[in-house]
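ok trying again, last paste got cut off:
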Amino acid sequence: MGPVSVSAVRALLSDAFLAVVIKDGIDIRHVTHLGRRVTATQRTALEARSGGACEICGSRYLLDIDHNEGWTLTHDTRLDDLSWFCWHCHATKTRHNLRVQGPIGARWFIDRKTGQRWHPPPDEPREPPPDAGGAGDSAEPAQPELFTLAD
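nice, full thing came through this time. structure:
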């Protein structure tokens, strides 16, 4: 097999779905760097893993990429220590000193003090703060194209 023309790909796309097989790719689980911000590769993997939604509640509003254990404790950025949270779940995790537990797609918070599953108080606010403008990683994820087709 070799290169595939754009017209052939478009013909396939109109009929069904396109499966992409990548040979000699990188294993994103082993990409670690010492900076605080995620790499483009890690961000793409997070997008694919979470579908661009909060990994706790499923919201797509004002998302943050956050270190589960806290970058100040680990001083590295690994995919298995990152989660995408909406503004509310991120603030809740930080405010109440919670940790993330559970498999991808079915996560919850654990209280670090008691070790018990955390449940929000009934009066916990759900509205975003008035100044929540979505700068940086706080905005709806702006994901680059995963691949482009050229004629």
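cool. The radius of gyration is 19 Å. Residues 101 and 108 are 6 Å apart (CA to CA).
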